[in-house]
Write a structure and sequence with these properties.
single chain, 285 residues, alpha/beta, 6-stranded parallel sheet, 38% helix, globular, binds pantoate
């Protein structure tokens, strides 16, 4: 076995220090494990432009709300290691919770404004938990580049904001959402769905695509695009829409009227499973 598994901060630092001394560029793919083809595409991208690929696997308690799925979130470590090995990952950092939060965490990273809407409106402490753990991972691993999927669009914007505001010397690389053939964005949470729920799921991306088409054909009225989308999603009795929003791509603020480039994003519940997805759209001049 070629892959190195590290479980402590001291150990991962020691390994990466040696790599840095060889002037190799370190790519970090932060994950919560339960790896799938979406993660594999992040790893592949990391392999193509970094010399040494590190994957972190850590289900971060700080980013889960009290009624969310922290305890039942899948943790198939053996399988994840195998996937990493096959994908050509050089090192995995899979710490215990007590390693990352060894003492009371008193310092938190909060990126203002960017988390006000979309998921941030429904998951109040979520992005503070994400930004804090990503800051810790950057300080532990000191990667040259770090890779994030566009599926978590708001997360990506917030991490970019944090890196800029706190002067992290890490280049953030965004990787396009990896989809099933029927359009469903890959997510570790897809496994929660029953076959009947899974059969409903493609309507999410179909609806985003329809919104994109409508915008690209000249519809500028946010209400009209949103209204049609919410109607289409609500037609399915097993689906509940949490939000469907059209935001500007950098500040992630809802736009009253659509001009130039926007991001169309939504969260829906299919049964008890919460799915998110988003798409870029550009309004014609
Ligand atoms: O996207 C995720 O899997 C997580 O939010 C991340 C970035 C690994 C932080 O825990």
């Amino acid at each position: 076995v070629r892959i190195v598994l590290t479980r402590t901060i001291q150990d991962v630092r020691k390994h990466l220090e040696l790599i840095r001394r060889q002037s190799k560029r370190i790519g970090l793919v932060p994950t919560m494990g339960a790896l799938h083809a979406g993660h594999a595409s992040l790893i592949e991208r990391a392999r193509s432009d970094s010399d040494f690929v590190t994957v972190s696997i850590f289900v971060n308690p700080l980013q889960f709300g009290p009624n969310e799925d922290y305890l039942r979130y899948p943790r198939p470590l053996e399988r994840d290691l195998e996937i990493c090995e096959n994908a050509g990952v050089d090192l995995v950092f899979a710490p215990e919770v007590t390693e990352v939060y060894a003492s009371e965490q008193r310092t938190f990273v909060e990126v203002s404004r960017l988390g006000d809407h979309l998921c941030g409106a429904f998951r109040p402490e979520h992005f503070r938990g994400v930004a804090t753990v990503v800051a810790k991972l950057f300080n532990i691993a000191h990667p040259d580049r770090a890779y994030f999927g566009e599926k978590d669009y708001q997360q990506l914007a917030i991490i970019r904001g944090m890196v800029k505001d706190l002067n992290f010397g890490v280049e953030i690389v965004a990787v396009p959402t990896f989809r099933e053939p029927d359009g469903l964005a890959l997510s570790s949470r897809n496994a929660y769905m029953s076959p009947a729920e899974r059969a409903l799921a493609p309507v999410v991306f179909q609806t985003l695509r329809a919104a994109k088409t409508s915008i690209e054909q000249g519809e500028r009225r946010t209400d009209v695009v949103k209204g049609a989308a919410i109607k289409a999603l609500s037609r399915e009795s097993g689906i509940r829409v949490q939000y469907f929003e059209i935001v500007d791509p950098l500040e992630v603020q809802p736009v009253a009227e659509i001009h130039g480039e926007v991001r169309v994003a939504c969260a829906v519940f299919i049964g008890n499973t919460r799915l998110i997805d988003n798409i870029a759209a550009v309004s014609p001049e």
